[in-house]
Batch of 2 targets.
Target 1
Amino acid sequence: MDDVIIGLEVHVQLNRLSSKLFCGCSTDYHNDPPNSHTCPVCLGLPGSLPVINRKAVEFSIRVGLALNCRIEQQTMFYRKNYYYPDLPKGFQISQYDFPLATGGHIMIKGEDGERNIRITRAHMEEDPGRLVHAGTIDRAKYTMVDYNRCGMPLLEVVTEPDLRSPKEARAFLDKLRTILEYLDVFDGSLEGSMRVDSNISLAGGDRAEVKNISSFKGVEKALSYEITRQRNLRRRNIRVVQETRHFDELRNVTVSIRSKEEAHDYRYFPEMDLVPIRVADWVPNVQASLPELPDARRDRFREQYGISDDHAKSLTSEIKVADFYEQVASRTDPRLAAVWIADVLKGELNYRSLGIDRFSPDHMVEIVSMLASQEITEDGAVILLRTLLDRKIPSLVDTEKPGATKAGGQLSVRVCDLVGSLGLARAGDQAVRAAVRDAVAECASAVSDYRSGNERAINFVVGVVMKKTRGRASPAEAHRMVQEEIEKGS
Ligand SMILES: [Zn+2]
């Protein structure tokens, strides 16, 4: 994909703020009726005046610094003039010259290895309201408008055209989201919290902009569709028109909505109701309060806990997972914990679309400790994880046996009790040895196949051992013991 050129404009809602950008309205509107979080300022009524939310500026500086940007000495706001039903003022307060942050970069996992993606700028602006169409955008009989979102604090992060594939665009968004969550300025689980405009072209061609995609998967799909569309045009010697397109998530296609507008179309001019802000003076304090960021935490995990870089990366890609890991690692074998959380637990959670908060660190500590002391097998540990996640704990739930207590409405179970009730305790050496002897005696033909050079025939015998011990033996150990037993007899 060497000829693909992608740049992103990411609108991030700073939704960890409690009030909007220029008024005191609450940002916590997601479960409330439409138009219940509004006031004359965010509705743009005549005579109302905006007042900047100090904390929003601070949050934005925090993001700027974390993206390795330069923070302007002084920043100011502009009016971006356009009319749209969700923008009752007829203009959006945004930034133009002197944006808050410029010239940054972050590292992402690219198609071949780590890649540095340059950030052009990050600027503050207010979110418009939201249009709710009765049906799809092109067939709706009517459209309703909800102004709850009007005036929500947004940070627009603009990249240089450094991305080379839809996958890299996705990797960039994942990394940006991780950083924002570490900074505690953003909650990505809220609807519409991150919306992406992407510019895409093939080398030498004009670019198309696909606007307002609200899911990362959508961005990847829209870009893949655009690459195919532009390649097909090129093959037929047709020029790509510079335009704005809409991604239809249901049909997985992009459709033209209008020709691309230029900056002068918006007639930017300074917002005289807001004074310029000298942000340079704020930087030292904000810098000092920055938390440990994902890349730094990944390096520390590798060194402090002696785990692989892949595990360290996987464990730090979500702040909640990283915190969970540290809680577990401080109380049991950190390397084994890394393997079981990164490779097994995360997979089981993904499969069920659950977050890590659905699993108790205490349970993980118990499971890892029992693995370390060989009280349970790896198969047994997987069964324990699944049982705890699916809450299929029949005997304990039904009959309040010792070990099952209802604490605060939540069922609390001790893993060691579960091991007992599910019969997962690892089989003792004696029992495994007896099973191996019986299996070797029963599987005469597999044993003779193995002796005559078919190495794989041994797996059949190991399978019989696992059956006889009801999965409570370690397969690797059973394999070793079967081999010994066969060699003894030959
Ligand atoms: Zn308001």
Target 2
Amino acid sequence: MATNSSGIADVAPQHSDTQSLEALRALVLARAPQRWTLVVHRSPDGDALGSALALALFLRKWYTRHLNRSVEIVVLSPTPVPAYYWWLPGAQTYLQEVGALSQEARTRWVRQTDVFVFVDFNDLSRLEDLGEAIAQALATTHEDGRPIAVLVDHHENPRVETDFRLWSPDAAATAQLMWQWLVTWDSSLIDREIATCIYTALMTDTGSFRFGTTTPEVHYLAARLLSYGVQPDLVYQKIYHTFSYHRLQFYGFCLLARLRYLPFFRCAYLVVSAEDLRRFRIGAGETEGLVNYTLTLQNVVLGALLIDRTQPHHTRPTIRLSLRSTGSLRVDELAVRYFNGGGHANAAGGVLHMPLTEAEAYFLDVLKREFPRWTQPITSSSD
Ligand SMILES: [Mn+2]
């Protein structure tokens, strides 16, 4: 493992993935694949976008230096990208929303892709329709052979088969694993723009270095990144100080009128209707972070947000659920068992296809059934 003069590891604990990275490098050197599609999950967050854009910026430089040629790269998002991420280095060049492409353009691009990199997710169902198109492309052999698939992720229980895997549920962010890729391939190519992308990813996925996942390695990596000239105050402002007046009012409204507090269950949750979203003109990504307010209540160990995301003119209701917990209470297990979802120990999500009032009743049933889990003392360990 690479260490610096202080003896601290450069990256999160490594797994068998370094071998995978060396093998991938050898394959890319031999085959020089022309078209790379870096895929992020629906409702992409800072970790997905920052990690993918860092790779895009890096690959362009790597191809020039090591293969003396150019390369086509797209960072593809299945759903709209929140406005406060478009300042990220490389976003204007590489980032593409699926919705902005025609059906033909999308199909052509996916079919002609030589390498897919799945960034910060491990289940094609997190890609909406795009997942099916990619699954088809991966099953099809063309003249250069089947496309190569690579996974870079830190969520539990990977459900997608890939040729190469850089995966660890112990990583606080996918960014740590992406960093491992970049330094393994050629650390001399890392510059301020790439470091800014990685830093943004690391900062957002650790709740600005507050979550229990914030290990010494996380802070060490942050320090390395700052040494490239990343400006932490600017990154923070660009991500978090971007509320519209409507959005701030919406948060106030939700806390005043949509918050349910169940002290006996040590639970607080928010229920937001489609009408609430319309009334305050809430756009993509603007509910990000709202659920975290539930855990700021004293004694609360489980927080949730139920939000009606049913598309206009769709008859099938879609309720998105975000879960947050403290310490040893694992919400990823609840998400898998009850809410068709998954995630991390303390931050997970899922989806229910039922009207909002039914979804709330179902959530309360789960609460009652699972409550014995957290009558035991909740430890504050971060595991
Ligand atoms: Mn992540």
